[in-house]
Amino acid sequence: MGTVVNLNKYRKKKAKAAREKRADQNRRLHGRTTAERARDELAKRKLERTVDGARLDAGNRAEVDVEPPASKKIDTSYDDGDGERPPKD
After folding, report:
1. DSSP-assigned letters across all residues of 40-75
2. What is the DSSP string of 17-31?
3. Rounded CA separation 41/5 (Å)
4. Which of 12, 20, 46, 58 has the fewest CB neighbours in a 10 Å radius?
5. How far is CA 61 from CA 34, 53, 57, 58, 69, in A?
6. Distance (Å, whole) CA 73 – CA 78
């Protein structure tokens, strides 16, 4: 005869091993030390300062006045100040 095996214990042991394996994978993928996060934050701030320092001022850009086409203009001659349109005749 063979050895008697408790299937509940076997199933629980197998599930625990799978959870530990997944936890180990997550630690490798997502786990970072405080020093690593601080280093990345410092690099991000330095990059933002560099980019902001290289931007052109608003005064250096060419200002262009663009009018909408005549078909897109809104007729406001009917407005008497109350925000409602007069009834159509």
Report:
1. HHHHHHHHHHHHHHTPPPGGGSPP---PPPGGG---
2. HHHHHHHHHHHHHH-
3. 53
4. 58
5. 42, 16, 7, 6, 24
6. 14
For 71, the token pair is 């078909």
Q: Which residues make Cβ contacts (< 8 Å) with residue 78, sequence separation at least 6?
A: 85, 86
Phi/psi for 18 (5° steps) reads -65, -40
Question: What is the reported pTM?
Answer: 0.37
Q: Report the C-alpha gap between 49 and 55 in whole angstroms.
A: 10
